[in-house]
Design goal:
The structure is a homodimer of 345-residue chains. Chain A has helices at residues 8-15, 19-26, 37-50, 56-63, 79-94, 108-120, 135-143, 167-180, 196-212, 228-241, 253-266, 268-273, 299-315, and strands at residues 68-73, 98-103, 125-128, 148-151, 162-165, 186-191, 217-221, 247-250, 275-279, 293-296, 325-328, 331-333. Chain A has 345 residues and is an alpha/beta fold. In chain A, strands 2-1-3-4-5-11 form a 6-stranded parallel beta sheet, sandwiched between helices. The first copy, chain A, has a 6-stranded mixed beta sheet with strand order 7-6-8-9-10-12, sandwiched between helices. In chain A, strand 6 (186-191), helix 9 (196-212) and strand 7 (217-221) form a beta-alpha-beta unit. The radius of gyration of chain A is 26 Å and the shape is elongated. At the A-B interface, helix 4, helix 5, strand 2, helix 6 and helix 11 of A face helix 4, helix 5, strand 2, helix 6 and helix 11 of B. The structure holds a DNA duplex (30 and 30 nucleotides).
Chain lengths: 345, 345
DNA sequence: CATAAAAACTAAAACGTTTTAGCTAAATAA
DNA sequence: TTATTTAGCTAAAACGTTTTAGTTTTTATG
């Protein structure tokens, strides 16, 4: 007993004009197509009166535009991604687009499945936080002339728009901050994956190690961690075997969380003496004890820049405009965890 | 220079059969429609060879099904919601549906706009975490025979499917746990809003207060908090004026966060002596000091149940099957913040 | 050998738009 | 008056499917 929605045809019939005329008026082409003011007004009034809304599906089918964007992240339940999603949502809606979010779990197979899936649905554009091995898939999207912007990480040999941060510099600032606060031997905990963001962070660390002349102590957890449990075990071993480190830079939010758990449970005294910095802020880091110093990515700015690039692509579908790599600056949110020991209560 | 996608018509032409035949075969109706095995095989083989994928828009236009669901939450960047979203995502994809997420900011106007927006797009179903005043809009969706399931909260006089927790019981368990651990005077911090989930939590608190004979101390923050700053100020005042409370149940994640900030900054000694429980867990609560006891909602179970109800509605669009109110059980994740004082280190 | 029944397939309408190409009537020019 | 231009409007095709209501061919039946 589905009530049939009113269509443009019904309107045309009711007003004794043609479907074409109604369509022209609705699309704001009344002037251009020389529809008289009188008819234009009649149509507009009636449409408002019955609160007619065009069928988007039919529009999309005809025009080839779905007004849907896809935002593909590692895991939408991770704060860094969900926060970005929240911003994208607003930006897109303002322009009349909706955003479909999906999680690729940083897995190539899943990523490719998802891209294919949405591609079949003729979405109008992709914002992708790519897993390590989907360079070719991305390239094939480009070849089909489908707008794509990469976020957070990119591929060295792909000419494509990208927005992210200057990871190396961010890392350097973080480590330098530790050094400035009298920590002598900062270590670095990250994931062993060949992705630009992680490589940049690692390089930044190594640079300062060499500049400041301390021995680099790196822990790179396996890319395909089986469980949090396994992660914690590896971290515990690292702390056991490196009693001399006096500070740590965690390269992601998730690692920080694991690390803090291990410290809290197995090395409670260390938790209060270690210098700790994390990439990516989270509201709760300010209420930990000690509160955790964080390298903050400029989420709003990143989202805005990304959308800007994407909409440029959507507009000039033809011209493969020169691609742009945006590396934005981070800010250091300084909290208790990097106070030099003498300053701590 | 857009490459034209291959259509069913191209296939038909190439194989010298009719479009109808191809369509039947692709829809698995070969047997039913008596298409010969030979033709069926030829079509299937060719389709696989050229990797043809039907145009979903056209399918949707014709069938009236978009295979898109909407999940409307308060704020997708909030962990409770984004975690649910992550689960829904997988469940839906398994059934061939995509999920559009949107954030209503618990605001009626925004909620209604969003619902209208998606309704025009003929989505196949809604999962809604409703703001307080959209009862009528929800009802109108029902009247249009559009599948809707409410989550987290519901409306007393609306006959509609709903999934959530037993808020009253959860609250009672939390407070009882405080009492059992020798806290004499638990207080309750919540939001002043007429929504079932909040009312239930409040009622649970009051019940135990009356059973255990302690004076109820409630702080209900305004529904339309201007800023975190304002929230912190109100909380600080509450703590200042109620020095005698020895424990708190925070009714949401967000309030817990604000509360902990205030405690950490203004009442550091209290932070370690107060009994603290929060509704809704977050990975980081286990690494706070003290780690925070949490009332955990069974997210997986909630998501599954919700999908189950929604798909039932989608299937039997006609029969207004009897609606179901699912109130699931929570679990208490006991951590340091509710150890009785004698047990604390 | 006609006829009925079953098997195998298909033409065309429909979903709701947009847009091209053109038509008609009025106004203007010659 | 006739030809031309312009204003105002519209028929019909197209987007890519699904599905109804057939038609044609083959096989079985009396």
């Amino acid at each position: 007993m589905k009530k049939k929605r009113i269509s443009i045809k019904d309107i045309a019939k009711h007003l004794n004009v043609s479907v074409t005329t109604v369509s022209f008026v609705l699309n704001g082409k009344a002037k251009e197509k020389r529809i008289s003011e009188e008819v234009t007004k009649r149509i507009l009034d009636y449409v408002k009166k019955i609160n007619y809304k065009p069928n988007q599906l039919a529009q999309s089918l005809r025009t080839g535009e779905s007004k849907i964007l896809v935002f593909m992240v590692e895991d939408i339940s991770n704060y860094f991604f969900s926060k970005l999603a929240r911003i994208f949502e607003d930006l897109a809606y303002d322009k009349g687009y909706k955003v479909l979010f999906c999680s690729n779990e940083n897995d190539d197979k899943k990523s490719i499945e998802l891209i294919d899936l949405f591609n079949e649905r003729q979405v109008d554009g992709f914002i992708i936080i790519p897993s390590a091995g989907i360079e070719n898939k991305i390239k094939s999207l480009q070849e089909q002339n489908i707008p794509v912007v990469l976020l957070d990480r990119y591929f060295e040999d792909l000419e494509i728009d990208y927005v992210g941060i200057d990871n190396q510099k961010a890392s350097e600032q973080g480590i330098q901050h530790l050094i400035d606060n009298k920590f002598k031997s900062p270590s670095f905990v990250s994931i062993d994956v060949q992705q630009t963001q992680m490589l940049g962070r690692l390089e930044g660390y190594r640079n300062i190690a060499s500049n400041e002349n301390f021995e680099a102590k790196e822990l790179l957890l396996p890319y395909d961690l089986k469980s949090n449990e396994q992660g914690r075990a590896i971290l515990k071993e690292f702390f056991d075997q490196n009693q001399d480190i006096d500070s740590i830079l965690f390269a992601t939010n998730y690692l920080t969380q694991l690390g803090l758990e291990v410290l809290k449970n197995h090395f409670p005294e260390k938790l209060h003496n270690l210098g700790i910095i994390t990439f990516d802020d989270n509201a709760l880091f300010s209420i930990c004890t000690p509160s955790i110093t964080a390298i903050c990515q400029p989420l709003d700015q990143m989202a805005e820049k990304t959308m800007e690039l994407l909409f440029e692509l959507i507009k000039n579908k033809k011209s493969t405009s020169k691609y742009s790599h945006q590396k934005l600056d981070t800010t250091l949110e300084i909290r208790e965890s990097t106070l030099s020991l003498s300053e701590r209560s």
